[in-house]
Amino acid sequence: MPGAAIDMTKKIWRTKGKVKNKKEKSYLFDHKALAKVFRAKMLDAITKTGLVLPKRYPGKWVVDCKSVGTGNKALIYLGRYLYRGVIQEKDIIACRHGQVTYRFQNSDTKKQEYRTVSAAKFLWLVLQHVLPKGFRRARNFGFLHPNSKRLIILIQLLLKFDPNRALAWVRKRPQWVCPCCGAKMMMIETRLPPLCSFARRLPT
Length: 204
Description:
Elements: E1 4-7, E2 12-15, H1 31-48, H2 72-83, E3 92-96, E4 99-105, E5 112-118, H3 119-127, H4 149-158, H5 163-166, E6 176-177, E7 184-185, H6 197-200
Antiparallel strand pairs: 1-2, 3-4, 4-5, 6-7
């Protein structure tokens, strides 16, 4: 979620105010209040569909919302979270006799620990991190959404930003020239040699 947006009534660019001192909290919204609103809307949607809620359901939802920094630090954190696998291959120490030994970091002690479980248990632990169809790890809002081309154009007009001028420094790829006549050449097809072509040159 971007930390800025367009005020549609005044047509001005609004950014989040800077924090004056360390005691002030720097966030876009109160995550505890957001959890209450989300919980109320979800329970209301479940009730409207005719589903019966269990007699005992959590009255308070646990929310984990923390700042990951800004700039490169935030990009590195999100990149690892979004594109890293559940477990790295080097952390799987052994797999024999139906048992899997893997290494992990204890979130409380921050130390490396080892655990041995059955192969079925290990697969179950991995599959718990696989999202169901239709779910995503992250969603983009505002002008970060893929379908916000018109909004991006409006932002560029308000900020007087010319994307073509900003990309003017990018050097164009050098043009291929025919070694015979000197005319410009156009690449129409690229062919790679077959993977097994080297085998034909080996002596039989």
